[in-house]
Amino acid sequence: MDVLLLGASGRIGQRTATELLDRGHAVTGVSRSGTVDDIDDDEFVAVAGDATDPDDVAKLATGHDAVVSTLGPSGDAAPDILTDMIEAVIEGLRRADVDRLVWTGGAGGLKVGPETLLIETEEFPEEWEPVARVAIEAYDILSEADDLAWTYVAPAALIEPGERTGEYRTADRELVADEEGDSYISMEDFAVALVDELESENAVHTYLGTGY
Description:
Elements: E1 2-6, H1 11-22, E2 26-31, E3 44-48, H2 54-61, E4 66-69, H3 81-96, E5 100-104, E6 111-113, E7 116-117, H4 129-142, E8 149-154, E9 158-160, E10 169-172, E11 184-186, H5 187-200, E12 206-211
């Protein structure tokens, strides 16, 4: 598969690129600078691109089989850039006639009870709320794109660099937690989940939670 990877220079993006390459996919990695460190593979090309510009996304996506996004606000960017990005990516894919999209979302919109979202719990860090609320808005925008075969994949409540075990669990719009109530996944295994879903298309039009 020929995959366009948006946000390839980030921590999750680099791990996702490695996972895709290890499985034999060709990867075009997009970052604002056009450089992606620590990836040396004949099937990887790093390019510059602006994920808030639908014309740029369309140009980059043309000729690819699918798009994977590990985009997120960087530096001092306002959280609202997430909605700008998802609107531009949706429009860009339509112009490029590419319909498969796997988007890295947030855990804040996942359910922890019948009518309670993670973001609504007392334990949810206040400093994470602005990005989490915009990530939910981004999902709402994506959920209206019925013409695209999208999947919105969210990590566990805590995601950090760690080991690649290849083991994880998923749930439809629910936070994945262990028997002690801890919700965690390594960035390496989250990358596995992203690529698994890209390849299987088992959760199209789904807000998918992941974790151990």
